Amino acid sequence: HAAEAQRTDLMTITRHVLNEQGRHPGSRGDFTILLSHIVLGCKFVASAVSKAGLAKLIGLAGETNVQASKQTNTFTNHKLHAPGGPMRPCPHHDPCSSSVTGEEQKKLDVLSNEVFVKALVSSGRTCVLVSEENEEAIFVDPALRGKSVNPVTLAVLFFSCLLLLLLFDYLYCVCFDPLDGSSNIDCGVSIGTIFGIYMIKDKDNVTLEDVLQPGTDTIAAGYCMYGSSCTLVLSTGNGVNGFTLDPSLGEFILTHPNIKIPKKGKIYSVNEGNAKNWDGPTAKFVEKCKYPQDGSPPRSLRYIGSMVADVHRTLLYGGIFLYPADHKSPNGKLRVLYEVFPMSFLMEQAGGQAFTGKQRALELAPTKLHDRSPVFLGSYDDVEEIKALYASES
Ligand code: AHM
Ligand code: MG
Protein backbone atom coordinates (compact mmCIF):
# COMPACT_ATOMS: atom_id res chain seq x y z
CA HIS A 1 0.00 0.00 0.00
CA ALA A 2 2.83 2.35 0.89
CA ALA A 3 4.50 1.78 -2.48
CA GLU A 4 1.21 2.34 -4.27
CA ALA A 5 0.64 5.58 -2.36
CA GLN A 6 4.15 6.71 -3.27
CA ARG A 7 3.43 6.23 -6.94
CA THR A 8 0.11 8.04 -6.90
CA ASP A 9 0.57 10.65 -4.18
CA LEU A 10 3.54 12.56 -5.55
CA MET A 11 5.39 14.96 -3.31
CA THR A 12 6.56 17.63 -5.73
CA ILE A 13 9.13 20.17 -4.63
CA THR A 14 6.49 22.93 -4.61
CA ARG A 15 4.15 20.86 -2.44
CA HIS A 16 7.03 20.05 -0.10
CA VAL A 17 8.05 23.71 0.30
CA LEU A 18 4.41 24.78 0.77
CA ASN A 19 4.09 22.14 3.52
CA GLU A 20 7.23 23.45 5.21
CA GLN A 21 5.93 26.99 4.88
CA GLY A 22 2.72 25.94 6.63
CA ARG A 23 4.84 25.31 9.74
CA HIS A 24 5.93 28.96 9.87
CA PRO A 25 3.07 31.21 10.91
CA GLY A 26 3.29 34.54 9.11
CA SER A 27 4.92 33.23 5.94
CA ARG A 28 3.00 34.08 2.81
CA GLY A 29 4.52 32.13 -0.03
CA ASP A 30 7.31 34.50 -1.06
CA PHE A 31 9.97 31.82 -0.69
CA THR A 32 7.82 29.35 -2.61
CA ILE A 33 7.53 31.86 -5.44
CA LEU A 34 11.29 32.44 -5.47
CA LEU A 35 11.98 28.72 -5.40
CA SER A 36 9.59 28.03 -8.26
CA HIS A 37 11.63 30.43 -10.39
CA ILE A 38 14.87 28.68 -9.41
CA VAL A 39 13.24 25.36 -10.30
CA LEU A 40 12.25 26.75 -13.68
CA GLY A 41 15.87 27.78 -14.28
CA CYS A 42 17.05 24.28 -13.32
CA LYS A 43 14.58 22.64 -15.70
CA PHE A 44 15.65 24.91 -18.52
CA VAL A 45 19.34 24.21 -17.94
CA ALA A 46 18.68 20.46 -17.54
CA SER A 47 17.00 20.47 -20.92
CA ALA A 48 19.77 22.57 -22.52
CA VAL A 49 22.49 20.33 -21.04
CA SER A 50 20.83 17.17 -22.31
CA LYS A 51 20.54 18.64 -25.79
CA ALA A 52 23.93 20.36 -25.77
CA GLY A 53 25.62 18.08 -28.27
CA LEU A 54 22.63 17.98 -30.58
CA ALA A 55 21.94 21.67 -30.49
CA LYS A 56 25.58 22.48 -31.10
CA LEU A 57 25.54 24.59 -27.99
CA ILE A 58 28.97 23.34 -27.08
CA GLY A 59 31.72 25.62 -28.17
CA LEU A 60 33.09 29.02 -27.42
CA ALA A 61 30.81 32.00 -27.02
CA GLY A 62 33.63 34.49 -27.48
CA GLU A 63 33.20 36.05 -24.07
CA THR A 64 35.47 35.81 -21.07
CA ASN A 65 34.68 34.26 -17.72
CA VAL A 66 35.15 36.90 -14.99
CA GLN A 67 37.04 34.51 -12.74
CA ALA A 68 39.83 34.13 -15.26
CA SER A 69 39.97 37.84 -16.03
CA LYS A 70 39.94 38.67 -12.31
CA GLN A 71 42.98 36.50 -11.80
CA THR A 72 44.88 38.22 -14.59
CA ASN A 73 43.64 41.60 -13.33
CA THR A 74 43.32 43.00 -16.81
CA PHE A 75 39.64 43.97 -16.79
CA THR A 76 38.90 46.94 -14.64
CA ASN A 77 36.56 49.27 -16.41
CA HIS A 78 33.58 47.22 -17.50
CA LYS A 79 30.44 46.98 -15.44
CA LEU A 80 27.38 44.91 -15.99
CA HIS A 81 24.57 47.43 -16.38
CA ALA A 82 21.35 45.66 -15.57
CA PRO A 83 19.82 42.31 -14.83
CA GLY A 84 20.37 40.17 -17.86
CA GLY A 85 22.25 43.10 -19.33
CA PRO A 86 25.20 43.01 -21.64
CA MET A 87 27.91 40.50 -20.84
CA ARG A 88 31.58 41.32 -21.00
CA PRO A 89 32.81 42.11 -24.46
CA CYS A 90 35.06 39.72 -26.26
CA PRO A 91 38.61 40.44 -25.07
CA HIS A 92 39.88 40.33 -28.61
CA HIS A 93 37.67 43.31 -29.47
CA ASP A 94 38.36 45.20 -26.31
CA PRO A 95 41.08 47.84 -26.67
CA CYS A 96 41.79 47.89 -22.94
CA SER A 97 42.36 44.18 -22.61
CA SER A 98 44.74 43.20 -25.30
CA SER A 99 46.79 41.24 -22.76
CA VAL A 100 43.86 39.06 -21.69
CA THR A 101 44.53 35.39 -22.10
CA GLY A 102 41.56 34.45 -19.92
CA GLU A 103 39.62 31.27 -20.08
CA GLU A 104 36.93 31.59 -22.70
CA GLN A 105 33.38 31.03 -21.58
CA LYS A 106 31.32 28.23 -23.00
CA LYS A 107 27.94 28.89 -24.53
CA LEU A 108 26.15 26.80 -21.97
CA ASP A 109 27.57 28.94 -19.14
CA VAL A 110 26.31 32.09 -20.83
CA LEU A 111 22.91 30.61 -21.50
CA SER A 112 22.50 29.24 -17.98
CA ASN A 113 23.50 32.55 -16.45
CA GLU A 114 21.00 34.48 -18.55
CA VAL A 115 18.25 32.01 -17.72
CA PHE A 116 18.86 32.20 -13.98
CA VAL A 117 19.23 35.98 -13.88
CA LYS A 118 15.98 36.45 -15.78
CA ALA A 119 14.11 33.80 -13.77
CA LEU A 120 15.26 35.31 -10.46
CA VAL A 121 14.47 38.88 -11.45
CA SER A 122 11.04 37.93 -12.77
CA SER A 123 10.18 36.23 -9.46
CA GLY A 124 9.67 39.75 -8.09
CA ARG A 125 11.23 38.51 -4.85
CA THR A 126 14.89 39.38 -5.36
CA CYS A 127 16.79 42.61 -4.72
CA VAL A 128 20.35 41.64 -5.45
CA LEU A 129 21.99 38.73 -7.26
CA VAL A 130 25.57 37.49 -7.29
CA SER A 131 26.56 35.17 -10.10
CA GLU A 132 29.85 33.43 -10.66
CA GLU A 133 29.68 34.69 -14.23
CA ASN A 134 29.29 38.42 -13.43
CA GLU A 135 32.04 40.44 -11.84
CA GLU A 136 29.63 42.94 -10.28
CA ALA A 137 26.55 42.23 -8.18
CA ILE A 138 23.28 42.69 -10.06
CA PHE A 139 20.98 45.15 -8.29
CA VAL A 140 17.44 44.43 -9.39
CA ASP A 141 15.48 47.40 -10.71
CA PRO A 142 13.40 48.70 -7.73
CA ALA A 143 10.24 48.38 -9.84
CA LEU A 144 10.84 44.62 -10.02
CA ARG A 145 11.51 44.11 -6.33
CA GLY A 146 7.98 43.34 -5.17
CA LYS A 147 6.34 45.09 -2.28
CA SER A 148 8.40 45.63 0.84
CA VAL A 149 9.16 48.04 3.60
CA ASN A 150 12.08 48.69 5.91
CA PRO A 151 12.18 46.71 9.17
CA VAL A 152 11.43 49.65 11.51
CA THR A 153 8.31 50.59 9.58
CA LEU A 154 7.44 46.92 9.41
CA ALA A 155 7.62 46.61 13.20
CA VAL A 156 5.38 49.68 13.66
CA LEU A 157 2.91 48.29 11.15
CA PHE A 158 3.03 44.90 12.81
CA PHE A 159 1.88 46.29 16.10
CA SER A 160 -0.64 48.67 14.56
CA CYS A 161 -2.35 46.26 12.22
CA LEU A 162 -1.32 42.67 11.59
CA LEU A 163 -3.35 42.56 8.41
CA LEU A 164 -1.14 45.17 6.80
CA LEU A 165 1.65 42.59 6.75
CA LEU A 166 -0.12 41.00 3.85
CA LEU A 167 0.76 44.05 1.77
CA PHE A 168 4.47 43.36 1.84
CA ASP A 169 6.68 40.68 0.40
CA TYR A 170 9.77 39.12 1.87
CA LEU A 171 12.68 39.84 -0.42
CA TYR A 172 15.82 37.86 -0.98
CA CYS A 173 19.33 37.97 -2.25
CA VAL A 174 20.52 34.96 -4.26
CA CYS A 175 24.16 33.99 -4.82
CA PHE A 176 24.61 31.33 -7.49
CA ASP A 177 26.91 29.54 -9.85
CA PRO A 178 24.65 28.87 -12.83
CA LEU A 179 26.77 26.09 -14.29
CA ASP A 180 29.56 24.80 -12.15
CA GLY A 181 32.16 22.34 -13.39
CA SER A 182 32.26 23.75 -16.88
CA SER A 183 35.41 21.84 -17.79
CA ASN A 184 33.18 18.76 -17.76
CA ILE A 185 30.63 20.06 -20.27
CA ASP A 186 32.26 18.87 -23.45
CA CYS A 187 32.65 15.26 -22.29
CA GLY A 188 29.15 14.88 -20.89
CA VAL A 189 30.21 14.47 -17.25
CA SER A 190 27.84 15.73 -14.51
CA ILE A 191 27.70 19.47 -13.95
CA GLY A 192 25.43 21.53 -11.74
CA THR A 193 23.91 24.76 -10.49
CA ILE A 194 24.60 25.90 -6.91
CA PHE A 195 22.61 28.55 -5.01
CA GLY A 196 22.46 30.19 -1.60
CA ILE A 197 19.67 32.49 -0.40
CA TYR A 198 19.66 35.30 2.19
CA MET A 199 17.03 37.73 3.41
CA ILE A 200 17.34 41.37 2.43
CA LYS A 201 17.33 43.75 5.36
CA ASP A 202 15.79 46.81 3.75
CA LYS A 203 14.66 46.78 0.14
CA ASP A 204 14.90 50.56 -0.13
CA ASN A 205 18.52 50.51 0.88
CA VAL A 206 20.07 47.46 -0.73
CA THR A 207 23.85 47.42 -0.57
CA LEU A 208 26.69 44.97 -1.02
CA GLU A 209 26.42 44.35 2.72
CA ASP A 210 23.28 42.38 1.96
CA VAL A 211 25.30 39.82 0.04
CA LEU A 212 28.51 39.92 2.06
CA GLN A 213 26.87 38.19 5.01
CA PRO A 214 28.47 35.30 6.90
CA GLY A 215 27.29 31.87 5.84
CA THR A 216 25.47 31.45 9.14
CA ASP A 217 22.87 33.91 7.78
CA THR A 218 21.97 31.56 4.92
CA ILE A 219 18.24 30.80 5.01
CA ALA A 220 18.23 28.23 2.21
CA ALA A 221 20.69 26.61 -0.15
CA GLY A 222 20.79 23.89 -2.73
CA TYR A 223 22.17 22.52 -5.92
CA CYS A 224 20.84 20.90 -9.02
CA MET A 225 22.94 18.17 -10.58
CA TYR A 226 22.64 17.53 -14.30
CA GLY A 227 23.82 13.94 -14.33
CA SER A 228 22.45 10.53 -15.18
CA SER A 229 19.30 12.01 -13.70
CA CYS A 230 18.55 15.60 -12.79
CA THR A 231 18.53 15.91 -9.00
CA LEU A 232 17.78 18.99 -6.93
CA VAL A 233 18.98 18.94 -3.34
CA LEU A 234 17.56 21.62 -1.07
CA SER A 235 17.67 22.75 2.52
CA THR A 236 15.55 25.52 3.99
CA GLY A 237 17.24 25.10 7.36
CA ASN A 238 15.16 22.10 8.38
CA GLY A 239 17.20 19.15 7.09
CA VAL A 240 18.08 18.24 3.52
CA ASN A 241 15.80 16.76 0.88
CA GLY A 242 16.53 15.50 -2.63
CA PHE A 243 14.12 15.71 -5.57
CA THR A 244 14.52 13.99 -8.92
CA LEU A 245 13.15 15.48 -12.12
CA ASP A 246 10.54 13.24 -13.70
CA PRO A 247 10.91 14.31 -17.34
CA SER A 248 7.49 12.93 -18.26
CA LEU A 249 5.81 15.13 -15.64
CA GLY A 250 8.26 18.03 -15.77
CA GLU A 251 8.22 17.99 -11.96
CA PHE A 252 10.85 17.45 -9.29
CA ILE A 253 9.58 14.61 -7.08
CA LEU A 254 10.82 13.95 -3.53
CA THR A 255 13.03 10.88 -3.87
CA HIS A 256 15.58 11.41 -1.07
CA PRO A 257 13.71 12.60 2.03
CA ASN A 258 15.67 13.82 5.05
CA ILE A 259 19.18 13.05 3.78
CA LYS A 260 21.68 12.35 6.55
CA ILE A 261 25.34 11.94 5.69
CA PRO A 262 26.99 8.81 7.21
CA LYS A 263 28.95 9.77 10.34
CA LYS A 264 32.14 8.38 8.84
CA GLY A 265 32.94 7.56 5.23
CA LYS A 266 35.24 5.36 3.19
CA ILE A 267 35.92 7.79 0.35
CA TYR A 268 38.10 10.87 0.00
CA SER A 269 37.79 13.28 -2.89
CA VAL A 270 40.54 15.70 -3.86
CA ASN A 271 42.57 16.80 -6.88
CA GLU A 272 45.79 14.91 -6.09
CA GLY A 273 47.53 16.60 -9.00
CA ASN A 274 48.06 19.55 -6.65
CA ALA A 275 49.78 17.39 -3.98
CA LYS A 276 53.23 18.92 -4.41
CA ASN A 277 51.87 22.29 -3.30
CA TRP A 278 49.73 21.12 -0.35
CA ASP A 279 50.25 22.23 3.22
CA GLY A 280 51.24 19.73 5.98
CA PRO A 281 47.77 18.82 7.37
CA THR A 282 46.27 18.15 3.93
CA ALA A 283 49.25 16.01 2.91
CA LYS A 284 49.10 14.08 6.21
CA PHE A 285 45.35 13.50 5.88
CA VAL A 286 45.64 12.08 2.37
CA GLU A 287 48.61 9.95 3.43
CA LYS A 288 46.45 8.49 6.22
CA CYS A 289 43.67 7.77 3.71
CA LYS A 290 46.07 5.71 1.61
CA TYR A 291 48.24 4.17 4.33
CA PRO A 292 46.10 3.99 7.49
CA GLN A 293 48.13 3.24 10.62
CA ASP A 294 45.20 2.00 12.72
CA GLY A 295 44.56 -1.26 10.89
CA SER A 296 41.59 0.10 8.95
CA PRO A 297 41.47 -0.47 5.18
CA PRO A 298 42.67 2.29 2.87
CA ARG A 299 39.97 4.63 1.59
CA SER A 300 38.84 4.88 -2.00
CA LEU A 301 39.61 7.98 -4.01
CA ARG A 302 36.81 9.43 -6.14
CA TYR A 303 37.23 12.78 -7.88
CA ILE A 304 35.02 14.02 -10.69
CA GLY A 305 36.17 17.64 -10.78
CA SER A 306 32.58 18.90 -10.64
CA MET A 307 31.88 20.17 -7.16
CA VAL A 308 28.16 19.39 -7.37
CA ALA A 309 28.77 15.77 -8.35
CA ASP A 310 31.60 15.27 -5.84
CA VAL A 311 29.55 16.81 -3.01
CA HIS A 312 26.43 14.87 -4.00
CA ARG A 313 28.28 11.56 -3.78
CA THR A 314 29.83 12.64 -0.46
CA LEU A 315 26.39 13.52 0.93
CA LEU A 316 24.86 10.19 -0.06
CA TYR A 317 27.75 7.78 0.53
CA GLY A 318 29.72 9.65 3.19
CA GLY A 319 33.39 10.60 3.14
CA ILE A 320 35.17 13.88 2.68
CA PHE A 321 35.59 16.38 -0.16
CA LEU A 322 38.67 18.58 0.00
CA TYR A 323 39.64 21.67 -1.95
CA PRO A 324 42.57 22.81 0.18
CA ALA A 325 44.80 25.83 0.06
CA ASP A 326 48.13 25.25 -1.56
CA HIS A 327 51.32 27.19 -2.08
CA LYS A 328 50.11 28.40 -5.45
CA SER A 329 46.55 29.25 -4.34
CA PRO A 330 46.65 30.26 -0.68
CA ASN A 331 42.86 30.66 -0.64
CA GLY A 332 42.10 27.49 -2.56
CA LYS A 333 39.94 27.67 -5.64
CA LEU A 334 36.32 27.55 -4.59
CA ARG A 335 34.29 30.71 -4.18
CA VAL A 336 32.81 31.50 -0.78
CA LEU A 337 29.43 32.95 -1.68
CA TYR A 338 28.16 30.48 -4.24
CA GLU A 339 30.25 27.34 -3.71
CA VAL A 340 31.60 27.09 -0.15
CA PHE A 341 28.60 28.53 1.75
CA PRO A 342 25.74 26.65 0.05
CA MET A 343 27.57 23.31 0.20
CA SER A 344 28.66 23.88 3.82
CA PHE A 345 25.08 24.77 4.78
CA LEU A 346 23.80 21.54 3.18
CA MET A 347 26.50 19.44 4.86
CA GLU A 348 25.71 20.82 8.30
CA GLN A 349 21.99 20.37 7.72
CA ALA A 350 22.68 16.72 6.81
CA GLY A 351 24.69 16.16 10.01
CA GLY A 352 28.16 16.67 8.54
CA GLN A 353 30.67 19.49 8.91
CA ALA A 354 32.53 22.02 6.79
CA PHE A 355 35.90 23.48 7.81
CA THR A 356 38.29 25.90 6.13
CA GLY A 357 41.53 24.81 7.79
CA LYS A 358 41.08 27.61 10.31
CA GLN A 359 37.39 27.82 11.21
CA ARG A 360 33.86 26.57 10.62
CA ALA A 361 33.26 27.42 6.97
CA LEU A 362 29.87 29.06 7.56
CA GLU A 363 31.47 31.54 9.95
CA LEU A 364 33.62 33.09 7.23
CA ALA A 365 32.86 36.74 6.63
CA PRO A 366 33.45 37.46 2.95
CA THR A 367 34.68 40.93 2.06
CA LYS A 368 34.47 40.62 -1.73
CA LEU A 369 31.91 38.99 -4.00
CA HIS A 370 34.27 36.45 -5.52
CA ASP A 371 36.34 35.66 -2.41
CA ARG A 372 37.74 32.14 -2.30
CA SER A 373 38.38 29.80 0.60
CA PRO A 374 39.86 26.37 1.19
CA VAL A 375 37.20 23.88 2.24
CA PHE A 376 37.00 20.40 3.78
CA LEU A 377 33.47 19.11 3.98
CA GLY A 378 31.65 15.85 4.54
CA SER A 379 31.08 13.21 7.21
CA TYR A 380 31.31 14.50 10.77
CA ASP A 381 34.13 12.19 11.89
CA ASP A 382 36.19 12.70 8.75
CA VAL A 383 36.12 16.47 9.12
CA GLU A 384 37.02 16.04 12.82
CA GLU A 385 40.18 14.25 11.66
CA ILE A 386 41.33 17.08 9.45
CA LYS A 387 40.45 19.61 12.16
CA ALA A 388 42.68 17.69 14.58
CA LEU A 389 45.56 17.74 12.09
CA TYR A 390 45.29 21.52 11.68
CA ALA A 391 44.98 21.97 15.45
CA SER A 392 48.11 19.91 16.08
CA GLU A 393 50.05 22.02 13.61
CA SER A 394 49.22 25.39 15.12
P1 AHM B 1 34.49 26.35 -12.34
O1 AHM B 1 33.59 27.28 -11.56
O2 AHM B 1 35.47 27.07 -13.20
O3 AHM B 1 33.70 25.30 -13.07
O4 AHM B 1 35.43 25.65 -11.24
C1 AHM B 1 34.85 25.05 -10.15
C2 AHM B 1 35.13 23.57 -10.22
C3 AHM B 1 34.41 22.79 -9.17
O5 AHM B 1 33.21 22.29 -9.68
C4 AHM B 1 35.37 21.68 -8.86
O6 AHM B 1 35.22 21.20 -7.54
C5 AHM B 1 36.68 22.33 -9.05
O7 AHM B 1 36.50 23.39 -9.96
C6 AHM B 1 37.69 21.39 -9.66
O8 AHM B 1 38.90 22.06 -9.77
P2 AHM B 1 40.24 21.33 -10.26
O9 AHM B 1 40.07 21.11 -11.72
O10 AHM B 1 41.32 22.30 -9.91
O11 AHM B 1 40.36 20.06 -9.50
MG1 MG C 1 31.58 27.72 -12.34
Automatic annotation (TrEMBL):
Catalytic activity field: beta-D-fructose 1,6-bisphosphate + H2O = beta-D-fructose 6-phosphate + phosphate
Cofactor: Mg(2+)
Keyword Metal-binding found: yes
Domain of life: Eukaryota
Residues covered by the Fructose-1-6-bisphosphatase class I N-terminal domain: 11-72, 97-147, 172-257
Alphabetical keyword list: Carbohydrate metabolism, Hydrolase, Magnesium, Membrane, Metal-binding, Transmembrane, Transmembrane helix
An annotated GO BP: fructose 1,6-bisphosphate metabolic process
Domain named Fructose-1-6-bisphosphatase class 1 C-terminal: residues: 261-390
Alphabetized GO MF terms: fructose 1,6-bisphosphate 1-phosphatase activity; metal ion binding
InterPro entries: FBPase_C_dom, FBPase_class-1, FBPase_N, FBPtase, Fructose_bisphosphatase_AS
Keyword NADP recorded: no
EC number assigned by the record: 3.1.3.11
Ranges annotated as spanning the membrane: 152-172
Xref: Gene3D superfamilies: 3.40.190.80, Fructose-1,6-Bisphosphatase, subunit A, domain 1
Family: Belongs to the FBPase class 1 family.
Protein name from the UniProt record: fructose-bisphosphatase
Taxonomic source organism: Paspalum notatum var. saurae
